[in-house]
Every structure is written in C-alpha cells, then in structure tokens.
Amino acid sequence: MKALVLAALVMFAAGTARADFAAGWAAYEDGAYEQALDAWLPLARRGDLDATYNVAALYENGLGVAANPDRAVDWYTRAAERGLALAQYRLARIFEAGLGVAPDPEKALSWYLEAAGQGRAEAQFNLGVAFETGGLVAPDIGLAARWYRAAAIGGLPEAQFNLGRLYFDGLGVTKDLGVAVEWYTRAARAGFARAQTNLGYMYEKGIHVPQDTARAIAWYRKAAEHGYAVAQTNLGVVLSFGFGADRDYAEAARWYRVAAGLGNAEAQANLAFLLANGLGVERDFVAAYAWAALAAEPGAAEAPTAREYRDRLAEWLSADQRAAGERRAEELRANLAGETVAPGPRTLPRETAALGRLDLAVQRRLVALGLYAGAVDGIVGPGTTEAIRAFQRATGLKVDGRPSPALLDRLDAALGERARRMADESLP
Fold first, then answer.
1. pLDDT band at 19 (very low <50, low <70, confident <90, very high)
2. Angle at the Cα of 78 from the Cα atoms of 98 and 375, rounded to 5 degrees
3. Is this prediction's pTM over 0.85?
C-alpha cells in the first residue's frame, strides 16, 4: 500500500519537474538558458533565494529572455529585501553606475551599507572608494580606511592594496610603512598587479625593506605579465639602466613597447630613446620620432622632456623622414584610440552557499515531488514540516517532520525513481 501511495506522488510530481533548481543549473551550464529560466522562475515565485537571484541575473544579461533591467532590479530587490547580500551588492552597483536604470546614489549607498553590514567584501571596498573619492557621499578618508580594512580582512586584494596605500601615504591612518608592506604583500601574493608594482618599487628603492633589485624585478615582472603598464615601464627602466642588475636593452625594449602600446607616456619616451640609439633594437629614427611625438602630447609628466627630445630628433631628420614620422605617429594614435577597456565580469547565475544547506535542499526536493508549494527559503515552518511528514508516511520512515541527511537521501532516491519511471514510459 505504501508503494502505491508513493507511486501516486511520483505521478503527481511529473508536472512539477520544471521546478527543480538542480535541473535549472544543469540547463544553465549547458547553455540552455530558456530551460534554466523555466526551472528557476517557479522556484523564485515561491521565494527560493538562489533561484530569485539567478532569475534576476538572467534578466539583467538577456540570457534565455530579452534583457530587461527593470525586471532584473525587481527580482534582485526581492532577494535583497530578504537579506541576500549578493543581491544587495548587485543592486548597489546597478544604481551607482546606472546600468539600465537611472542612477540613484541614495539607493546605491543604502544597498552598499546593507551588503557591507553582512560582510560582503566587495560592498565594503566600494564604500571605501565612495568615502575616499566622494562619489556617493561627502569625502571622509577616515571612514574610507575603516571600510577598506573590513574588506581587506575579508581577503579582497584591491582593498588590501588601497589600505596599504593609505598607510604608505598616511591618509586617514597613522603613516606606517611596515603595515603598508604587509598589506601590499598580501595583495601582491593574491596576484593584484598594482600591489606587486608598489612592492617592487619599495624593494627597488629600499623603502622600509632591504634594497633588493632581484626581488624588485621579480615583482615588476609578475605585474607586467598581468598587463599593468606601470610595472612594464618600471621593469624596462631597471633592465635598461641596470640598477643592481645586468643591463638587458632587448628585454627592456620589449616591455617598453608593450607599455607604450597601452598609452604609457614614460614607456613611449624611453622606447624612442632606445630606437634612436639602437639599444636592444634596430636603430630607427622615424619610429623614434613617432614615439617621442606621442609622449610629448599634453597631459603627461614626461611631455616637456619628450617634446624636447622630439625636437632634437627633428633636427637630424630630413623633411621626408619627419613627414614619415608624423604619419607613423598618427597611425600609433589611431591604434591607441581603438583600444577599449575590457568590460568587467558579468553578473551571472551561480550556485550560492544556500546549495549546501540541508533545509533548502530538502525543500527543493519536496517541491520537485509536488509535496510542497511554499517558499524555498530554508525556514522549516508548518508547511515544510507537514510536507516532510507526508513523505515520511508514504515511504515508511519515522514520522518526525524534521530534515535530516537520511531524509535527503530518500528524497533523492524518490526523484531518481521518478526519472527512471518517466524514461520507461517514454520508450516505444
């Protein structure tokens, strides 16, 4: 008799198969975004926080549905109001940057504070930036330091770097180069290029650490390989001048060229010098003139020196060579103008921490079996308890209405049996 009752439950559940978070995740990973939305939307409407967030992300990014910023904000808000820090942070970013909606600094600040209060390091960092720059609030470098510290302790490399920078300069905190080195080192070991560069500079110059050119080069190289133009330029300087290391004009020229292509004026000027003198590269006065012309443009600290060097080169060049140099400079400007900043990472659906919670896992399976129609929120209320009791009665388990690992295993077994039954019924 018990088997017949369970079979009836399985048949009833066939129509609820879409309301399955795991199935939605599998569909999402396969690129079947419409199926993922079909699976998550019923769960989101019942209050499943993970599904609610993921539905918002699908609407924001136009995955499986036309992009709709207003609906994305609506779904993020539902999750945020129920305390999901990730959704609170995303709302803050949307309102701060005006991503598909009108910018709203007050809402952005409010949601940042909510998320930061729950320990969301990215929100704490952005609050630090806001208080340092005055982007959303009146500047307060002391509060900026407090929020940077919270995010740095939370392990965010950019916060560790900014906190180290404040200690290096004595802004909002008592100047302490030892603490600056500590935070720079943490961020550098996490792969943050600007921290690697600053740490390299401190070792190059012997600022509060023993002067160590080899270690400076190692840190500069790590940051340079991450694409940071300042580090590429600093590495080129150390290699070309041989400060405590063997000179290597060829490698210096290679790094100058990369940084110059990223618009670094110092690298452009230094590359012009190497090209004009044939150091590490084939001598090329026309190319040297072109790079010097770029470095001489207003705005860069190197502009006056580069302008003087460009003019000296012009005296050595024929009219045809100067014209060729101007054309080359125009080509380089066009290439630089065509460079765009890579977009930041999209906010995408994810398997959140709630996936590891027993109560949520049990609720999801009860939904998939058609036994529960309430909110999938991890709160074991009367509805969840009665659904568990119904399943336990149907399967011969001890009826206590409580989630447990053993109950989860039996729910998974029931879902597996349902899947096999449906597969058998589909055979000709």
1. very low
2. 160
3. no
